[in-house]
Design a protein that fits this description.
It is a single chain. This protein folds into two domains: 66 residues; 44 residues, no CATH class. With 129 residues, it is mainly α. The protein starts with a helix and ends with a helix. It is built from six helices and two strands; from the N terminus they run H-H-H-H-H-E-E-H. It is 63% helix and 9% strand. It has a two-stranded antiparallel sheet. It is elongated.
Length: 129
């Protein structure tokens, strides 16, 4: 069954999102934009609040699905070990001092001097994707 109330709300939110984009693109203040567009400021702020609420609810819904799909949040200890095959291969300067991580088709190659805090932030970001 079609929920006409929900569709109407989504259409209104879409319309007002366009109005908000127009205001931003115009470079005018909210007061000046409302005056030139014939919109009452209280109506503008009402729909701005509604858009923020809808965006917040959408964000919360997507975060719940993302966090439940992750099995264990946080970091795992990683140790570098040389396999017998790797020990037999000559080490070149570009691979000997680098960390190679590949997760889900994404490859990260970091040199020994790469700041650990930046690598940790990158891994946290990737774990949320």
């Amino acid at each position: 069954m079609i929920n006409t109330r929900q569709i109407a709300t989504e259409l209104r939110l879409s319309h007002w999102a366009g109005v908000m984009r127009q205001r931003i693109d115009s470079g005018l203040s909210i007061k000046n934009f409302c005056e030139t567009s014939g919109i009452r400021p209280n109506v503008y702020f009402y729909w701005q609040r509604k858009l923020r609420q809808a965006a917040s609810e959408h964000f919360e819904r997507t975060q719940k699905t993302r966090t439940t799909s992750l099995s264990v949040p946080g970091f795992a200890q990683v140790s570098l070990e040389t396999t017998p095959l790797q020990a037999a291969l000559p080490q070149t300067s570009d691979t000997a001092d680098t960390l190679h991580v590949e997760i889900g088709g994404v490859r990260i190659i970091a040199g020994v001097g790469y700041p650990p805090d930046k690598l940790a932030a990158l891994l946290r970001g990737l774990s949320q994707c």
